[in-house]
């Protein structure tokens, strides 16, 4: 069953030097419960693709279907709920420096007007899940890169998303920390049934945890399928 379907998705930007095509006729199906990788070089269109999937960016053509519904046909409120169903994780963590770990994880729940006691309880559970309950009171500057990403993952889970969209989530981390973060994402996928989308330029990330992969090159999907079939040796 498809949780996200991209149909003929296109995105162009008007610039002073004319039109730039970032995405051209992207067709993809991401299945509920899988870990799906999207790999490509810098400039291929990966970030634009992520921003179209969660509708931070309006596609120029084509459609994003989320859980059977066309995002562009949704009313604002429905769109906001759909966006809350997709947790985002970034390369540079994007934590709030002035807030401690617990407050960072509570932040999306505040925005969603959740009762603050309930939010704190849930945040503590999520911090336990990512192995950081001991650092609740620490500030981001006091944490290592891997710890910051764990906080970001807990925060992304706060609104109970059905999808985690990870944009170069391990690209700022050393190899051992990368392994630990990938293992955590896999655990979240397998134990909680959350669909994970990994955007990356690193083959090792795809090989480590992805079930299926699409290769994006110059705004096009040039190949997609099972990781074992696409990246099998000679
Ligand atoms: P990637 O994430 O794979 O590095 P991007 O999606 O950032 O690729 O960019 C794809 C192409 O679209 C690049 O040529 C980039 O310069 C262009 N692009 C992205 N965003 C904009 C924008 N806001 N305005 C103009 N061009 C853009
Ligand atoms: P990434 O490689 O992670 O996409 P970039 O540095 O390419 O990072 O892009 C950072 C931001 O700049 C994004 O919001 C993107 O949309 C925008 N951007 C990228 N290329 C261009 C461009 N040629 N003109 C204007 N904005 C751009």
TrEMBL record:
This is Methionine ABC transporter ATP-binding protein. One of its GO terms (molecular function) is ATP binding. It comes from Enterocloster alcoholdehydrogenati. Keywords: Amino-acid transport, ATP-binding, Cell membrane, Membrane, Nucleotide-binding, Translocase, Transport. Residues 4-234 form the ABC transporter domain. It comes from the Bacteria.
